[in-house]
Amino acid sequence: MAAFNTLINFIYAAHGEWYFGDSYCKFHNFFPVTAVFASIYSMTAIAVDRYMAIIHPLKPRLSASATKVVIFSIWALAIALAFPLCYYSTTRKIPKRTLCFVAWPRPSEDSFMYHIIVTVLVYLLPLVVMGVTYTIVGITLWGGEIPGDTSDNYHEQLRAKRKVVKMMIIVVLTFAFCWLPYHIYFIVTGLKKLLNKWKYIQQIYLSVMWLAMSSTMYNPIIYCCLNSRFRAGFKRAFRWCPFIKVSSCDELELQMTRFHPTRQSSMYTVSRVDSSVVAVYDTADGDQLCPAKHKSCPSLHSSINGYSSHSVKASVSSTLYGSTPAKDFP
């Protein structure tokens, strides 16, 4: 989206004229929507995967082939949902300018119905799935008993669980908050079509569109703040910057990932031999291998949080959903 649509959107919004031809008009309306839909469904698939890894840790995980099928299905569904925008996109020359828009056969009815379908399938349904799965995972992680004593290890695990829950809640709330105004805008303007002729409707549209598109930039910030492995990888990628230093703890975090390539979703499953109770927590999403600054990093082969490392199981465009809501053609 940044490479193919951002600059084009800016030029089109600033000049009010389409300079890029009919073919790129179709691509411009189709590609960013497909990418956004695929991103949302990927987040939903990750939520289901985390749910299965934590709530049902002993069930077999998806194979590489099954994972490829899921990825293919996500993109196929995203393409199918966005295809009407490509099919009906066209350009029209009017006095002094050219417009790029989606010419629905029945402009009022078809556009509104499409937005309703998109709201249900790309906002409400993923939000319900992520909300339910992360709520169950949060309750399990927050309230479950972790085998072990009440030493520092227990409290470190408790802090790790809370970070996992916080990250899950923040990701879901960010998605819900950023996309809600966008869907409300299309529903309201579909029901009250006179609002499309209001003087400042274009500015309102651009504002809600910016907010929705900005949702994609918040997740890396959330992960960097609450995920030690993501933060370590980020530091290594930008270690050439003079103000970014890679510590020994960061190197150890990345080495653990390299030496355990088969673990599933970075979920550590901890169990007692004499008990059927299994407690699962996500070290990757919150637990620090070096949680306290005054503590030294453990060696690579030392225990993790009091348990032997051998017990670790490898376990978005200004014409989204339609044409830019420009005023009626002069």
TrEMBL record:
Localization terms from the record: Cell membrane
BP GO annotations: positive regulation of flagellated sperm motility
Keyword Nucleotidyltransferase appears in the UniProt entry: no
Record family assignment: Belongs to the G-protein coupled receptor 1 family.
Cell wall biogenesis/degradation keyword on record: no
GO MF annotations in UniProt: tachykinin receptor activity
Name of the protein described by the UniProt record: Neuromedin-K receptor
Alphabetized InterPro entries for the sequence: GPCR_Rhodpsn (IPR000276), GPCR_Rhodpsn_7TM (IPR017452), Neurokn_rcpt (IPR001681), NK3_rcpt (IPR001013)
Gene Ontology, cellular component aspect: plasma membrane; sperm midpiece
Domain G-protein coupled receptors family 1 profile span(s) in chain numbering: 1-223
